[in-house]
Signal peptidase complex subunit 1
Amino acid sequence: MFNIATHMDFEGQGRAEKLSRVIITLFGAVGLIWGYIIQQFSQTVYILIAGVLLASILTIPPWPIYRRKPLNWQKPRPEPQPTAGGTETESAKKKKK
């Protein structure tokens, strides 16, 4: 029905994590300074919560910026077919050991 991407590549995950840390740290520092200036710790908490919400909106969904370098996975190997007599081949026996 819909073709919605639900993944990020490895570099996108790193970019999202770094961006979220920067946003939360920045909002935390600004909130701490502002809360100290007006002597209201609640303002610090509100600003920090706003930063967490902004970071969540920007980094949790798999936006196209986080899907620029997808991995090319190898095709799976076909499973060996059993022989007609029902006995295993020598290579199959070695793999089980």
Notes: The chain has a mean pLDDT of 86.
